Amino acid sequence: MKAKFKLILGRRRQYPLHLELEVYKGVDCRVFISTGIILESEKQWDAARQIVIKNTNEKQYNDFLRQMIQNVVDAETEAEKRGNALTAADIKMAVKSQTAKGEDVIETFRVYAQNAEVRESTRRGLFSRVNNLLHFAQLYKGSKNATLYFGEMNLNVIKELDKYLYTIGVPSTVSGTHLTFRKFFTLARKDGLIAVNPYEKFDLEIHDSKRRVALSSEQLQNVEALTPEDLEKGKVPEHIYDMFMFACYTGLRLSDVSTISREHLYYENGGLVVQKVTIKTGILVTQPLHSLFNGKPERIAQKYLELYQDSETLFPKTKPQHIQESIARLGELAKIPFHLTFHMSRHTCASQLAERSDNPFVIMNILGHGDIRTSMRYIHLSHTTAKKKLEGINWDAEEYNGPLTRTSNENLAKIQQELTEVCTRKKLSEALTLAAIGASICHVDKSDLIKEWIGKIRKTDYTIEAWGKRLEILVG
């Protein structure tokens, strides 16, 4: 007796409608296998002809189903050659051999991430997004062993994925994750794994990833005011709270805060200093913890140096997902009016520094920015700094002696124009030009000195590192 096959849609009578393959051989062998295909309605399935209809991927789906059945037939033939009966294990192995060739979305995306020509830190970000997709699949299907197949990726699934992503990230992160998946599906289409990219019908809302969401001074004080009892009530582990506050004072990323060890800490001039090569950019950052925010990060570091004397890292090792979930609860506990993430601590540090200093190079050095333009954004976004300066102006006086009044808008525009012309003649990059303009606007009295220096520089000074050091000396 040969095995018989039947495709069944919605056997469990629940949405979404899963298409399953029933394989039976006598009374001892009967197996239901998920094809990985989900259809939006019964109208997309012709039970009599056993084919998918009225679906953009119908040809691919039907080819896939025919191949799945053929794999089981081949497995049965192989079993008979060995003198064995076809078993449920043989059937499952035959189907698994097909999905392993690229029908599994998550495993295929892992391969794409591994083969992507990107720097290692970006690759880790791609893997993190693929893991987000895996966690979504587990929640969506209600199983820890769940995965996703190309056959079931449609507009409805992507909409559900979108809802899930908003529960774990800010809008800019959500749009960035969608862009990554859309690119991966484009690659899958080129590789012949799908006929249509499911993202083609998805209305992807792009959020400005350059918008820095940070805690205001008042919101930061609210977080600082939380007590151990508050943290326990809100189910926020104390060491995760301390990691977040340490990052707010130092601007270090989660990857760097999590990997700080005793080797990165030393004493200088009576205070604790952290010196570490950042994982994402490979830039060496040196921070005097005793000088930042009145020594608050130093006190946190001292606390954990004493608590965990035998630990490899300063803070206890914790899974990133657990940290992010705890930080979200921390935001609710402190009544922060937006979804709080760990990375906002870095933006908070930069914003606080911008409110206290007009020098973008201070921010660049503390946070280890690879581009002065990133640091300049925080200067421009610091509304508090502008407000403080405006409050210091005597608008009724006949003559204005403050630095802002001496520097009119016309004068600032002239400085920008002159520096742009000098930099253009020297064929300088946009980053170097913006750095020079930013330093001149922040230190108007040194603008002529900066312009004069630019006119004399040689090509050896064209790197952002040499450029930044020289500008620091000039404005210092």
What is the topology?
Elements: E1 4-9, E2 17-25, E3 29-39, E4 45-46, E5 51-52, H1 58-81, H2 88-99, H3 105-115, H4 120-141, H5 155-168, H6 171-190, H7 217-224, H8 228-233, H9 238-250, H10 254-257, E6 265-268, E7 271-277, E8 284-288, H11 296-307, H12 320-333, H13 344-356, H14 360-367, H15 372-381, H16 383-391, H17 403-406, H18 409-425, H19 430-442, H20 447-456, H21 464-475
Antiparallel strand pairs: 1-2, 2-3, 4-5, 6-7, 7-8
Helix pairs in contact: 1-2, 3-4, 4-5, 9-11, 9-13, 13-14, 13-15, 14-15, 18-19, 18-20, 19-20, 19-21
Structural overview:
The chain contains 21 helices and 8 strands. The chain is 54% helix and 10% strand. It is mainly α. It has a 3-stranded antiparallel sheet with strand order 1-2-3. It has helices at 58-81, 88-99, 105-115, 120-141, 155-168, 171-190, 217-224, 228-233, 238-250, 254-257, 296-307, 320-333, 344-356, 360-367, 372-381, 383-391, 403-406, 409-425, 430-442, 447-456, 464-475, and strands spanning 4-9, 17-25, 29-39, 45-46, 51-52, 265-268, 271-277, 284-288.
**Termini separation:** 90 Å
Backbone structural class? mainly alpha
Strand order of the largest sheet: 1-2-3
Task: Give the total of beta strands.
Answer: 8
Rg on CA atoms, Å: 30 Å
User: What count of helical segments does DSSP give?
Assistant: 21
Q: What attributes does this structure have?
A:
3-stranded antiparallel sheet; 21 helices; single chain; mainly alpha; elongated; 476 residues; 8 strands
Brief description of this entry?
It contains 21 helices and eight strands. The protein is mostly helical and 476 residues long.
